[in-house]
Design goal:
single chain; five-stranded mixed β-sheet; 10 helices; binds 5'-O-[(R)-(carboxyoxy)(hydroxy)phosphoryl]adenosine; binds zinc ion
Length: 330
């Protein structure tokens, strides 16, 4: 079964053709980084306009690279949320138009759930379940018990900033450009992670929830007060604090819920520093990380999950399918 996936939740316009939920035939991603860079973050109106301009060429390119014609597509999967409403509308309307024109079923997919599916995709049957799902992206931070595709139990989430958002904001404080995560990782390589005693936020009575706004404020005061504050040490210390917080909570959660493996998803999980930390300190658990090209926003994960949902339900979404900017994944 050939599935065309479409992803336009935020600032990447992406389309992909995936066969049978796991074989990626094409994975085309057009990033808008340079468009939003001067503003230090994503400007929704600009994002929607860019999606509208390039969505059709990107779909064409995905079909071309996959060597699959539009007529051979069996199913259309589209990210339905969470995300920017105008951005979602572009992808959803393109998907509806194709489903209607080709007379093929349509499936709306949760973008955050798809981030976790990205790590399941290459080795679906090799992942010991229940797994602890660890979602770390620009919009979400969550620990979830994954019993099966579609069977999740939310264990912990952030009460304020998402971890990727914290990286982006700290990067701005340090004068680094958007998106900040990779730049902080780069700068931190030369820095001393113990120089500043930053710590991840503790939430009273909720030990498995996250809070990154205090950590971010600590960084702000440090940068302001200590004029000589070495940016590379601030970056390294912040990164250490954020990642150790995730590691410690993940270790507690995996024990508490008797998880047999760790399943990672979201843009922040492309960090090599994070991967090294987990390989070192959680070596007793099998770990499944998104393969290259599937950490950051992409449409292959959307197509893959759409296949799984459709083969289970055999149901096409109605044409009233509408964007869900705050769609809950778990
Ligand atoms: O999953 P994603 O592509 O988009 C959302 O669904 O939000 O994640 C993007 C986020 C950005 O906040 C970016 O700064 C962060 O992932 N990120 C990183 C790294 N690479 C990307 N954060 C920390 N370290 C990295 N190496
Ligand atoms: Zn994402």
């Amino acid at each position: 079964m050939y599935v065309l996936g479409i992803e336009t939740t935020c600032d990447e316009t992406a389309a992909s053709v995936v066969r049978d939920g796991h074989e990626i035939l094409s994975n085309v991603i057009s990033s808008q980084i340079e468009l939003h860079m001067p503003f230090g973050g994503v400007v929704p109106e600009l994002a929607c306009r860019r999606h509208a301009e390039i969505i059709i060429p990107i779909i064409h390119q995905a079909l071309h690279e996959a060597k699959v014609s539009l007529n051979e597509i069996d199913l259309i999967g589209v990210a339905q949320g969470p995300g920017l409403i105008g951005a979602l509308l572009v992808g959803i309307n393109a998907a509806k138009g194709l489903a209607l024109g080709l007379d093929r079923p349509l499936v709306g997919v949760n973008h955050v759930e798809a981030h976790l599916y990205a790590s399941l995709m290459p080795q679906l049957n090799a992942v010991p379940l229940p797994a602890l799902g660890i979602v770390l992206s620009g919009g979400h931070t969550a620990l979830v018990e994954v019993r099966d595709i579609g069977a999740y139990h939310l264990i912990g989430a952030t009460l304020d900033d998402a971890i990727g958002e914290a990286f982006d904001k700290v990067a701005t404080l340090l004068g680094l450009s958007y998106p900040g995560g990779p730049k902080i990782e780069q700068l931190a390589k030369e820095g001393d992670p113990q120089r500043y005693p930053f710590k991840g936020g503790k939430v009273k009575g909720r030990p498995l929830d996250f809070s990154f706004s205090g950590l971010k404020t600590n960084v702000l005061y440090t940068v302001r007060q200590e004029k000589e504050a070495e940016k590379k040490d601030v970056a390294a210390s912040f990164q250490r604090a954020a990642f150790e917080d995730v590691l410690e909570k993940a270790l507690v959660a995996s024990k508490m819920f008797e998880c047999k493996s760790l399943l990672f998803g979201g843009g922040v999980t492309s960090s090599q520093t994070l991967r090294a930390l987990f390989h070192h300190r959680a070596a007793h658990l099998p770990q499944f990380w998104p393969p290259s090209g599937l950490s950051l926003d992409n449409a292959a994960m959307i197509a893959g999950l759409a296949f799984q949902l459709y083969t289970r339900s055999k149901e096409s979404a109605p044409f009233s399918l509408s964007p869900q900017p705050r769609m809950k994944p778990f």
